[in-house]
Design brief:
The protein has 364 residues and is α/β, with parallel strands linked by helices. 35% of the residues lie in helices and 15% in strands. α4 packs across α5.
Length: 364
């Protein structure tokens, strides 16, 4: 790049949960390589930063800074996975400002742009305070974004609808059904959590962004959806959701995933991983297994050992010639492999029903 990137300082604000972290870091790695004279300050919690940093492949123009996760000292988290999400979001823009102050103090450079996970809407307030562009990154399934622009209509239409009612009133999403809706959108009254309110605000917050980055392929999105979103956003930038080439080789591959992928045709294997935050229900796990079997695609499925007993009877035998199920896979290298064409991590689309907001419609 030209010297136009000199003295630029971009603050990256992460949503420090589930599989939102790695795709955001991959984007920053690509930007850092394209703009070596630009500084990138990655702001997360101490726990999330410990997962990503330090690594030998992180270039010198990316530095990590930690802010509070919002969990009070001595507090014991309950069983609901959304509790820690709500506690983090509750810290608000003040917490994010502290991370930026750390970055500015060390780099001696003022922040000139903020790139944030779209779920951290308080980063908009920070950008407005600093008078810099705000660029949120939408990491869930792209078409799920549409739901948050039609919340009032959806609540009205779904209030007394049967689960199989289709959304023919949503541009490009006519095949989606009421049963696919994340409950976070439908919550009203006392059931509303801070995370639910955050999701519900996206339709009003995102149009204030300089641009919204979409982690998907524009060619695969419904044209009506793309047209509708472009009419609502200042700019819509698609970024191909592929891992950075800067990522290192795996330290271990005890289950032989990579050698198995080496034997498959290019771009022919679906990779499935449920993540670590919330386990799928038995019903959901069976639904995924049935979809894989019916699809006829080759697949690599990273599934916890204690969930393998929930698979449909005979599933392993019927799919043994084209499928591989392991308890752990070197995910970074799997995603970078030329045989892998699809990654569905349920960390970012769970069903609590919908811990992170889009399990149902992703499945659709």
């Amino acid at each position: 790049m030209s010297n136009s990137s000199e003295n630029k300082h971009v603050a990256i604000i992460a949503f420090p949960f589930g599989s939102h972290l790695m795709p955001l870091l991959n984007l920053v790695l690509k930007l850092a390589r394209a703009a070596p004279n630009c500084s990138f300050s990655f702001i997360g919690t101490g726990k999330s930063n410990a997962i990503l940093f330090p690594k030998p492949y992180i270039p010198n123009n990316i530095k990590a800074y930690s802010v509070s996760d919002g969990i009070p000292d001595g507090h014991v988290l309950g069983s609901r996975p959304t509790e820690k999400l709500n506690l983090f979001l509750k810290t608000g823009p003040e917490n994010l400002h502290k991370g930026i102050e750390l970055a500015v103090a060390e780099t001696k450079q003022r922040v000139t742009c903020i790139i944030s996970d779209a779920f951290v809407t308080s980063s908009l307030v920070v950008a407005q305070t600093l008078n810099v562009p705000w660029v949120p990154v939408w990491l869930p399934m792209s078409c799920s974004l549409s739901l948050y622009f039609y919340i009032d209509l959806l609540r009205e239409q779904c209030a007394n609808s049967a689960g199989d009612r289709t959304f023919d009133f949503l541009p490009g999403l006519s095949k989606m059904r009421a049963e696919d809706m994340p409950l976070d959108i439908l919550y009203v009254g006392e059931e509303v959590t801070l995370f639910s309110r955050t999701l519900a605000s996206l339709g009003k917050v995102l149009p204030q962004a300089k641009a919204v980055v979409i982690n998907f392929f524009m060619e695969l999105d419904p044209p009506l959806f793309v047209k509708d979103m472009k009419s609502k956003l200042n700019s819509m930038l698609y970024v191909v959701p592929l891992p950075s080439q800067l990522l290192p080789p795996s330290d271990t591959d005890a289950n032989g995933c990579l050698s198995w992928l080496d034997k498959q045709n290019a771009r022919s294997v679906a990779y499935v991983c449920f993540g670590t935050v919330v386990a799928p229900t038995p019903h959901e796990l069976v639904a995924v297994a049935e979809a894989l079997e019916e699809s006829g695609f080759s697949f690599l499925w990273s599934l916890k050992e204690n969930q393998m007993g929930l698979l449909p009877n005979g599933f392993l035998e019927r799919t043994s010639m084209r499928g591989k199920i392991v308890s752990w896979a070197p995910q970074t290298q799997v995603l970078a492999h030329e045989s892998a064409i699809l990654w569905r991590s349920r960390d970012k689309c769970k069903n609590d029903r919908g811990c992170l907001g889009d399990w149902g419609h992703n499945r659709r």
